[in-house]
Amino acid sequence: MTRVCVICEGQTEETFVNDVLVRPFAHQGVYLSAALIGKPGHKGGRVNLQRLTRDLRAILSDPAIYCTTFFDFYGLPADFPGKQDASALPTPAARAAHLLDALTQALSTHLDAQALRRFIPYVQMHEFEGLLFSAPDALARGIDQPQLAGAFHAIRDAFATPEDINDSPQTAPSKRLAALYPPYDKVFHGSIAALDIGLATIRAECPLFDGWLSTLEALGPSEA
Fold this sequence. Notes:
By secondary structure, the chain is an alpha/beta fold. The chain folds into two domains: 2-126 and 206-218, Rossmann fold, CATH 3.40.50; 128-203, no CATH class. 50% of the residues lie in helices and 12% in strands. The protein has helices spanning 11-26, 49-59, 83-87, 92-107, 113-117, 128-132, 136-142, 149-157, 173-180, 186-197, 199-205, 207-218; strands at 2-8, 30-36, 65-72, 119-120, 123-124. Strands 1, 2, 3, 4 and 5 form a five-stranded parallel β-sheet that branches. It starts with a strand and ends in a 6-residue tail after the last helix.
């Protein structure tokens, strides 16, 4: 089997990995395990290069393990490698590529080549909740608010893909959800809605997310 540790920004991403991704990947011989960034007992958040480097050194010290990240671009601090320059680029794809290149370069001074080869960086554009706009009707059903389907469609239809739904304190995907449904709970509702939407639909609507999962799938089952 191939083991992949997914370092998650917070409990929302951790729950999504456990509830939505683990089983289908296990069927392909790729065993995902989610871990929050930071020390044990930490609730996630406050992503920074120092904390990520420390986690990667510990995880990748086992030569049989791969490691990836599941962070929100929106929540990264301004001094995260590549964040400021990436924010000025015109498309989510360009922003993601620039930031992940900058992160890999920054880590190359902290990790040896053997460890860096087993690191697959990923940042969700712009937030995890963007994925939920892949199917507005299912999102509305998933949070038990079917009357909001029309409002969710209006948000989704204003952008080329759910990953284009923009990042700002007012317009980030989670802010839009909370504005329409104030009781929205990221951890609880996020995973339930994702299960209602279905992984295949999310992958079909979100090309960057799909590319990340395709890279993990390509690792395939280990012969060990």
